[in-house]
Amino acid sequence: MADRSIASPGLPPEIRPGSVAIERAIDADADPTLEIDGSDRGRRGRSTSVGSRGPGRWIMRIVALTYLAFLLVIPVGLVFWRTFAHGIGPVWKALTTDGALHAFQVTFIVAGCAVVLNTGFGMVASFLLVRHKFRGKGIINKLIDLPLAVSPVVVGLSLILVYGRETTIGSWFGGQGIDIIYALPGMVMATAFVSLPLMVREVVPILEEIGTDQEQAAATLGATPTQTFLRVTLPAIKWGVAYGIILTLARCLGEFGAVAVVSGRVVGQTQTATLYVEQSFENFKQADAYAVAFALAALAILALLVMNIFRPKEP
Amino acid sequence: MYLSFLVVIPLAALVWRGVGGGWSEFVDNATTPEALSALKLTIVLSLLVALVNAGMGTLIAWVMVRDSFPGQRIVDALIDLPFALPTIVAGLVLLALYGARSPIHLSLAYTRLGVAVALLFVTLPFVVRTVQPVLLEIDRDMEQAAASLGASRFTTFRRIILPNLVPAIFAGTALSFARAISEYGSTVLISGNLPFKTQVAPVQIFNQIQSDNPAGAAAVSTVLLVVSLLVLVGLSLVQRWALRRG
Fold it and tell me: Could you give the residue ranges of the DSSP H alpha helices within chain A?
């Protein structure tokens, strides 16, 4: 009964799956219209609007674009160009060597584990932070943001100091036949550490925005907490979660500093794609370095594109 | 549980290792000539980079919001690229243009300027992305009112627009400073790792770990950690102040 009533179309649109996306789209729609409105006004009263006319505008535009070109566009373009300077064949060859393939495999395993961990933790933590009051909430809130401020190298070092082989915890695990540092578990931990805040920061604002009205309505209609979560809350936050997963994944695939410290860089075992890039470059195998770097960059750009789709900016 | 095992205990252990041997040992470890020069370089470079970002970031945000030209959306999307790109790839990308085989014959590899460029690259989006939304929301009526009352364009900008932007610029600058002092991936390739010249603190820490000197590494790490915490605390104080004021 409760199920059917929740799924019925008579309920407010916020409950329907995907409505957050729609709301976001509407929000995003509103912004550009405002902007267009503003620039219209600017056009009508050109002489009164700051920066809308004159040589100043051109100078600023040129300065900004030149800066971006030399810092961003030309270097990135150059790497792409050099990667494909000898056609697509050598690139494919460099990407499918045993070393490169294995590095990608390690990267995906580590990133996958870290994403799963952080998605679970991120959702639980977001619920606790938004829906519950407890002592130390403010501190937890600050702690979650901490990884953004800590250098990846420092992250790696601090993990070694606790879970390294010479420490109590590390040697206990070592006795059980599990290595943490210089092995996959440590790399997963390092990656999860640096990408910890991303999911929470995506889900918390959405939870705050949707409020508890719908959930209470569902509960009064007889839904169990699980039903309420699956049918009311989850559909509302799913786009935020999806966005968070992509952000986390992109960060995990590209993590270098923390993993470099805890992995021990055992070639063919704990070498991730980013480590492979550095090693190839240092060993003057530029073609290999460029090819793998290109693949990583392509993944990053893909992630950007997907995020842009999730957060439409213009109609 | 998760948070404490992953974040709290390791960081506490780090500080404990750094300071645990007594204050004098900590000072000794953190002020070896190599550590000291790395820390100094890191902080000076990061300050410079943050200042450049404050200026250029605001300018870019301005051009993105108030100007319109073909391809603007693409440029706008490109600004996020440094966030998405793995840092080691960022280092490689910059070496391609400013490295030894530079097509424009401008080799910044192994120089401090090169390190600064790498830091500028990875911190580019911070100021732009914090200033942009604020600039979008500023009420244009105020500007027009100022102009109609006879204010010059520069006066309008200085007296009406800038005060509204300052909290956002400050926030973006502080974030990019915090990011710059902790950056490792993009600087390791371009710096060439020359002690006393281009070695920044995160790279120095990494070398200490590799040469099995965790005490020294932990000491320098603790300094970095404290500096970035101070910056973040300062930032949240400023934000609170801005909220009260606004």
Answer: 2-7, 19-44, 55-68, 74-83, 88-95, 98-131, 137-149, 152-163, 168-175, 184-194, 196-210, 213-220, 225-228, 234-254, 257-263, 273-282, 286-310
- How far is it, in rounded angstroms, from Cα A152 to Cα B175? 16
Chain A partners within 8 Å of B148 (Cβ)? 48
Q: Taking CB atoms and an 8 Å cutoff, what residues of chain B touch A250? A: 84
What phi, psi does B149 have (nearest 5°)?
-85, 5
- Residue type for A202, please? E
Q: Give SS3 for A270.
A: coil
A299 touches B89 (CB < 8 A): no
Q: Within 13 Å and on the Cβ side, how many CA atoms surround A97?
A: 17
Neighbours of B68 (CB within 10 A): 12
Please, what is the Cα angle at A197 between A194 and A201, to 5 degrees? 155
**For B53, which residue in chain A has the nearest alpha carbon?**
A67
Q: Tell me if B175 sits within 8 A of B126, measured CB to CB.
A: yes
Which residue type, as a one-letter code, is found at position A195?
S
Nearest by CB to A196, from B7, B93, B181: name it: B7
Task: Provide the token pair at B94.
Answer: 């910059």
Q: Which residue of B has its CA nearest to A186?
A: B6
Q: How close, in Å, is residue B32 to chain A by CA atoms?
A: 18
Tokens 């991303």 correspond to what residue? A198
**How far does Cα A114 stand from its chain's mean position?**
11
Interface test with A, best of B7, B29, B164, B191 (most A CBs within 10 A): B7
Query: Does the predicted model carry a pTM greater than 0.80?
Result: no
Candidates A191, A196, A203; CA nearest to A142 is: A196
Report the complex ipTM.
Answer: 0.81
Amino acid at A167: T
Task: Show the domains of chain A with their CATH numbers.
Answer: 88-310 (1.10.3720.10)
Are B90 and B122 within 8 A, CB to CB? yes
Q: Is residue B100 exposed (0-12), middle (13-18) or buried (19+ Cβ within 10 Å)? A: exposed
Residues B63 and A191: their CA atoms lie apart, in Å, by 36
Domain B35-245 class in CATH: mainly alpha
How confident is the prediction along chain A (315 residues), in pLDDT tens digits per residue?
A: 333 333 333 333 333 333 333 333 434 434 443 333 334 333 333 333 444 456 777 888 888 888 888 888 888 888 888 888 777 888 888 888 888 888 898 899 999 999 999 998 888 888 888 888 887 777 888 778 888 888 888 888 888 888 877 777 777 777 777 777 778 888 888 898 888 888 888 888 888 888 788 888 888 888 888 888 888 888 888 888 888 898 899 889 888 888 888 887 777 678 888 888 888 888 888 888 888 988 998 888 888 888 777 664 433
Find tokens 């998605």 and name the residue: A119
